Amino acid sequence: MSAIDTLPPLRDVIATHGLSARKSLGQNFLLDLNLTAKIARQAGDMTACDVLEIGPGPGGLTRGLLAEGARRVLCIEKDSRCLPALNEIAEAYPDRLTVIEGDALEVDPLAHLTPPIRIAANLPYNVGTELLVRWLTPPQWPPFWQSLTLMFQREVAERIVAQPGSKAYGRLAILAQWRADAKIVLQLPPGAFTPPPKVSSSVVHLDALPEPRFPADPAVLSHVVAAAFNQRRKMLRAALKGVVPQIEDVLNAAGIKPTERAEQVSLEGFCALAREVAKAKGK
Ligand code: SAM
């Protein structure tokens, strides 16, 4: 019998430990272990990796990650009610699971992890985007993680993988695709969760690139992209006029028509624009 078979079904775990879902903590649990194993497999080969999981809850995905062979799993969970259930899993997998009670936005996991590191999580929706943006903007690149396998509301997942010309295309797509290969690998209906959320969900997998896809200064790129999409309906010559006075020349030098709108500009185009803006500012 493998370790996972010694553990009680997740529905029993929830009943035993009184884990009624709390909306304030974004608690929508995955109780189907076939599904959590399938999500864990999307993370790739974990046998030589430490895996960071945010928000394990009763531990459905945690079980999947361990059963699929993760070398070690480090969990950060804010809800102390989940700790007894997670400790049961830690006992079934000696020396492979560490649980930290705390807020993922405040805890620094690095002291507890040995590279190579993958991150996998059914994220609490209230903090998911903030964590993703942090993971995509570390002080140095490459980041501490090799890959991210993350559950998001479908609308957020679509913003991460969006291409130019679509409504979903914006800052998140540019940030994610500049630093990583990003794809949606699974779609889940509300009924896959207990309780079911109002919206559908998607699992996004991101592989870190060894270096950003096109050269650009991160601060300048972020400034230009923010300015362009803050006024996404305006032509770029108007939306970006506060960035540098000679914006039309700078856009032309970057190969972008001043009459285009942010939505039409590719990631490569934004990186070229960031380089021209930096040049115009004498950076
Ligand atoms: N991974 C579990 C699953 O798939 O069944 C639970 C997922 S549930 C969507 C989100 C989990 O994140 C909950 O267990 C919740 O308590 C936890 N959580 C919410 N905010 C958190 C935070 N700031 N830091 C760490 N965990 C958090």
TrEMBL record:
All residue ranges annotated as the Ribosomal RNA adenine methylase transferase N-terminal domain in the record: 35-210
Gene source species: Sulfitobacter mediterraneus
Reactions catalysed, as given in the entry: adenosine(1518)/adenosine(1519) in 16S rRNA + 4 S-adenosyl-L-methionine = N(6)-dimethyladenosine(1518)/N(6)-dimethyladenosine(1519) in 16S rRNA + 4 S-adenosyl-L-homocysteine + 4 H(+)
Regions crossing the membrane: none
UniProt record similarity statement: Belongs to the class I-like SAM-binding methyltransferase superfamily. rRNA adenine N(6)-methyltransferase family. RsmA subfamily.
Protein name (record): Ribosomal RNA small subunit methyltransferase A
Localization of this protein: Cytoplasm
Cited PANTHER family: DIMETHYLADENOSINE TRANSFERASE, DIMETHYLADENOSINE TRANSFERASE-RELATED
Main localisation: cytoplasm
MF terms in GO: 16S rRNA (adenine(1518)-N(6)/adenine(1519)-N(6))-dimethyltransferase activity; RNA binding
Gene Ontology cellular-component terms listed: cytosol
Keyword check for Ribosomal protein: no
Residues where S-adenosyl-L-methionine binds: 28, 30, 55, 77, 103, 122
Database matches in HAMAP family: 16SrRNA_methyltr_A
Gene3D superfamilies hit by this protein: Ribosomal RNA adenine dimethylase-like, domain 2, Vaccinia Virus protein VP39
Role description: Specifically dimethylates two adjacent adenosines (A1518 and A1519) in the loop of a conserved hairpin near the 3'-end of 16S rRNA in the 30S particle. May play a critical role in biogenesis of 30S subunits.
Enzyme Commission number(s) from the entry: 2.1.1.182
Domain of life: Bacteria
Keyword Transferase: yes
Keywords: Cytoplasm, Methyltransferase, RNA-binding, rRNA processing, S-adenosyl-L-methionine, Transferase
